[in-house]
Amino acid sequence: MLPATPGDFPRAFAEAWMNRDAGALATLFAEDADFVNVVGIWWEDRAAIRRAHQYGLTTFFAESRLALGCVKTRALGAGMAVVHARFRLSGQLRPKGGTAPDRQTILVAVLRDTGAGWQAVAAQNTDIVPGAETHLAGEDGLRAADYRA
């Protein structure tokens, strides 16, 4: 079942995550939706979004908790809206065992009213990096940087 309002989208996303239900999570997205994850992997349709979340929710996110924070919704015209939502992720498993510290993200989703509920046509999830302004490329990869420090 699709969210009744744009503001319900983040709650439905978190609920599907907590139920480890990649199918329900993918249903929140249009068949041709785009989703960019926190490291820039771009999934270009619902099937890819489902596969990626199925993998994550059954492996490194299998014990995770996704807690919803602040939600901001803005209408973009008839039947369209953008939603920003803060999340706190806890319980992510480390590659070599143990649990990683909590992290926070902001999910941005562009939604359209399908008549049966609201569905994302595009979304991007971005990690919040405290104390950083940008990323800086180096020989060992990207690292958070703050030019004011």
Q: What does the model show?
A:
- With 149 residues, the chain is of the alpha+beta class.
- A hairpin with a 2-residue loop joins strand 3 and strand 4 (80-90).
- It has helices at residues 9-18, 22-27, 46-58, and strands at residues 29-36, 42-43, 65-77, 80-90, 103-113, 118-128, 134-138, 141-145.
- 19% of the residues lie in helices and 44% in strands.
Give the SSE string: HHEEHEEEEEE
Main sheet record: 6 strands, mixed
The count of β-strands is 8
Q: Strand-residue fraction?
A: 35-45%
Structural class from helices and strands? alpha+beta
Overall pLDDT level: 97
Keywords:
single chain; 149 residues; alpha+beta; two-stranded antiparallel sheet; 3 helices; 8 strands
List the helices and strands and how they pair.
Layout: H1 9-18, H2 22-27, E1 29-36, E2 42-43, H3 46-58, E3 65-77, E4 80-90, E5 103-113, E6 118-128, E7 134-138, E8 141-145
Parallel strand pairs: 1-6
Antiparallel strand pairs: 1-2, 3-4, 4-5, 5-6, 7-8
Short description:
The protein has 149 residues and is of the alpha+beta class. The chain has helices spanning 9-18, 22-27, 46-58; strands at residues 29-36, 42-43, 65-77, 80-90, 103-113, 118-128, 134-138, 141-145.
